[in-house]
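Holo prediction. Input below; ligand is C6P.
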Amino acid sequence: MDPQAAFTSSGPANAVYTAEQLEQRAAELRQRFPILRREVRPGVRLVYLDSAATSLKPDSVIDALAEHYRLRSANVHRGIYTIAEEATAAYEAAREKVARFINASSTAEVIFTHGTTESINLVAWSWGGTNLKPGDEVVVTQMEHHANLVPWQQVCRRTGATLRFAPLTGDGQLDLAALEAMLSERTKLVAVTGASNVLGTVPPVAEIVRLAHGVGARVLVDGAQSVPHFGCDVQALDCDFLAFSGHKMCGPEGVGVLYGKLELLEAMPPMFTGGEMVKKVTFDEAAWNDLPWKFEAGTPPVAPAVALGAAVDFLRDVGWDFIRAHEQLLVSYAFERLQEVPGIRLLGPAPPNRSGLVAFAIEGIHPHDVAQFLDRYGVAVRAGHHCAQPLHQLLGLRASTRASFYLYNVRADVDALVDALKQTVERFARFRQRVSSQRG
Ligand code: C6P
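Structure of the complex:
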């Protein structure tokens, strides 16, 4: 089964688009992103290929954020005056939109956090801290982002549980048989990415959930790189926790989501304590508020949450059928064209079994130099270890360069990337030649 389709109840993309239709629609959508109208420098257009780091924002999201501050900038769940009640209603309406977006069975299962990192830390500290003990095991994969690795290292250290790593196959897929062999009654949790931010690998999460539940383990899905690109139906997938960030799905920074099954969240202690997460407080003790507010201590990111609601509306209007088909078109095209670059090594599995990003290494040129040269041509890519250092060690690399696509990219962006890379390789070759002839 297509692993991306497993995230949604709708199954495989049912609308069939031609490449020209996809390009046409992406060209229309570009009009909604005001930043794409700017030039990086006079005469140099912005070729934004870093959406895995953060996505661009459409006008409707920017307007929602500005409108909130213009019309109803008030704290939520506190004031009883009109604009405060409007702010509360807008904040809770955004939660309802998010709940529908991931098909949560109740808004009580949708906690607003500041992002994926905080969401995973919350589960590790709260669920892990109360459910793990010496002898227990937590399984993650070798391709996890630090956000889905370090919190588990920490909680395992604290509780005496053991952290285990499901390996990858030679072509960068998850070795499902090896993961299955690791599972036992000792396994208490499997924490897995919905899509790797380096390899583009989309693990078979539905199968992992089935296997983990078979041994009584819980499953957390790090949806930072999957929810923005193919959504998630938490009931169809049957995951226990899902974490994702607003800023990678056309929303603003500063807001993210933790979904958890109601019975699990009910039993978990709050990680942060203070205002608004309590029902009653005396000098000696406190009683926790109902879900989801039990986990939302202090003033939440109100305007970003409201704008995230606008991002959800935007993505729904665009539609998963288009987003998935379009990213497949771009990543397949990129894989094909990037082979033209001398000395390039593309990381991760070949299309179509991957998400819409491609990381690569070029022999003899440091990824930071590559990214700096590409910037001269207006091409914005990320270089570094992408917060996945252990994975890079496994690949025998210290760093890589990554181009990541989203619904507003077009094939001309891939052409610009490839042309700029060829020029970069040529310049470095000329430079090396000059140095060696000077030495000789
Ligand atoms: N990856 C990237 O350029 P935050 O920063 O909390 O919004 O998301 C953390 C995170 C968690 N999991 C995965 C798979 C991710 O890719 C990220 C963020 C960005 O790859 C920034 S390091």
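The longest strand covers residues 187-193. That is the main takeaway for now.
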